[in-house]
Amino acid sequence: xxxxxxxxxxxxxxxxxxxxxxxxxxxxxxxxxxxxxxxxxxxxxxxxxxxxxxxxxxxxxxxxxxxxxxxxxxxxxxxxxxxxxxxxxxxxxxxxxxxxxxxxxxxxxxxxxxxxxxxxxxxxxxxxxxxxxxxxxxxxxxxxxxxxxxxxxxxxxxxxxxxxxxxxxxxxxxxxxxxxxxxxxxxxxxxxxxxxxxxxxxxxxxxxxxxxxxxxxxxxxxxxxxxxxxxxxxxxxxxxxxxxxxxxxxxxxxxxxxxxxxxxxxxxxxxxxxxxxxxxxxxxxxxxxxxxxxxxxxxxxxxxxxxxxxxxxxxxxxxxxxxxxxxxx
Amino acid sequence: xxxxxxxxxxxxxxxxxxxxxxxxxxxxxxxxxxxxxxxxxxxxxxxxxxxxxxxxxxxxxxxxxxxxxxxxxxxxxxxxxxxxxxxxxxxxxxxxxxxxxxxxxxxxxxxxxxxxxxxxxxxxxxxxxxxxxxxxxxxxxxxxxxxxxxxxxxxxxxxxxxxxxxxxxxxxxxxxxxxxxxxxxxxxxxxxxxxxxxxxxxxxxxxxxxxxxxxxxxxxxxxxxxxxxxxxxxxxxxxxxxxxxxxxxxxxxxxxxxxxxxxxxxxxxxxxxxxxxxxxxxxxxxxxxxxxxxxxxxxxxxxxxxxxxxxxxxxxxxxxxxxxxxxxx
Lengths: 329, 329
Prior knowledge:
Ribosomal Protein S5, domain 2; four-stranded antiparallel beta sheet; alpha+beta
């Protein structure tokens, strides 16, 4: 385990040592992620393997950052209006170089799905540029750039999807300023099942449901569960993971926005999952299971419920991705 | 790491297997403890080595529990009014035996000091009886009995001092019902320095200062710190332990009751300690340091401040006690 503690301020100095590699173009896979994870609201997240965006990052003579291709979803080409563009610019502005980058985005993660769509974009561009530059920045520094892109989408600076997308596995964002990201161990046999109901939850509506004040007794329950979950991940104690996956603060409010949430959660637990909750701010629902078979059983159980609702949905079953964003070509 | 998850209800059946050992009398050391540990309000605790009560537990023909000697502090002899007596009775009532126990208490931990005085008494009697009976109960079951004694002193059922006194090291009380106690690893070079100002803080006054509601943003900071502290203890990351020892929920309110708290904390940190905070509900202040030498430097720094205040005080410097309550004769 490593503690990554760097302030964004130090990034420009770290960049001085970059190398211009021979490689001029790479294709990367930038994974979807689950933030909050029940008891870890705003701090915890984990990384998925089976769904993510692909992006091509290319070194070009023309200075600056240009988004040259977007497939999958309708997103802005203007660099300063595009999440991947903004995070790329945040890094680019710290560099003293006489060339630029083009970015192609092959978007698989639907914006607004609750599984880190904007984080994947924000992470992909800076990870790819960093690789082409010979890795002048560490992952915490990359997170600091990506936060700028994420902020464009979510209107606030947070890293609970960015961190698992960059580091892989489970991450705990201890603080944003200074940025401190902890890598929590991932037990070997942990699998996620995700349902993404194809509905739109307005961010403003989801935010309005968050209580400004919470009962101290509930807060104590929540931090007991989070402390316990961190311990359970360290000790690969699946029963304790299950006991810890409870959210008494946010889920009671936000779950109302997700159709059939209670039924899905009940069916998921009856199918043997360790726990379930809202992925990020929804509408996706995540669950964790001890084996791929259980994760597949959970998928069947959710499909049985959702196929009768008339609501379109997508499902993902994935091993926890311990690598995070990676080069694929 | 083991998960101890037992409900108190199961204790009577577990007791059926007890053995009457030849041993008729033992002397035990029941240690002082620090609860809350800054970010772990109501759930976290650790065990001290250099101060604790001694107790003699004796098997006698006469049925029932009798407190036969108390030295050190003026405490009630009536079994049902004495913390050690009440926890002993809670265990005794689950047993089907034709003999009783006498308890002698040599009290070193001043009641109301904030370092687990009542917990040491509550733990000592049930630990000693369990040893004389051949250990029919596990430590979580013993905690469930001791909670009854602790409740006599503190008017509510909590285990954040009991758990470290019984298990040693750092413990996290995940929940009271069912009782779930987690043993968090203790880094090798961790030492505590404690100052106990000889003042009385009324429990009612200390309670009244606790907010019923807390800002969600503060709660998030607190659970980020607790999750981080659990991770830091698992990874023996002293810098991260230091970064995590912050309490934004309780300390800002309760520290007002402790004379010169801010000065002491400042001096402690300047002396190289990893962190400092209120021990339990005070008035004791704890700090943690990476080496015995630093813990001693911290002691000097605190003495310099407190010796000028006119307030009487006691100090303790202790390695973290990873064994907990133990037989000494």
